Amino acid sequence: MRGEHNSTSYDSAVSILFSLVVMLYVIWVQAVADMESYRNMKMKDCLDFTPSVLYGWSFFLAPAGIFFSLLAGLLFLVVGWHIQIHH
What we know:
Transmembrane segments: 12-33, 54-83
InterPro entries: PMP22/EMP/MP20/Claudin (IPR004031), TMEM182 (IPR026763)
Helix content: over 70%
Main location: membrane
Radius of gyration: 22 Å
Number of helices: 2
Membrane topology: Multi-pass membrane protein
Distance between the termini: 11 Å
Order of helices and strands: HH
Strand content: under 5%
Shape: elongated
GO cellular component, one term: plasma membrane
Largest sheet: none
Structural class: mainly alpha
């Protein structure tokens, strides 16, 4: 059993994560589309309407969080691979 791994568990985990990423992207695109339709609807009533969207610190720190999440995932895979080979 050394050197072998259960590829179906890895495949299912990857497919679940990919599906989650796709769903989050669709939700984000839908939110942006709703904001645009909201602005257009309000522009009919008031020509001087400008939406104000405030972003919090979490929005600005998200790119760093993505980087560290990927780094943690790669570290997890390397440690798992190392344990699997040597034990």
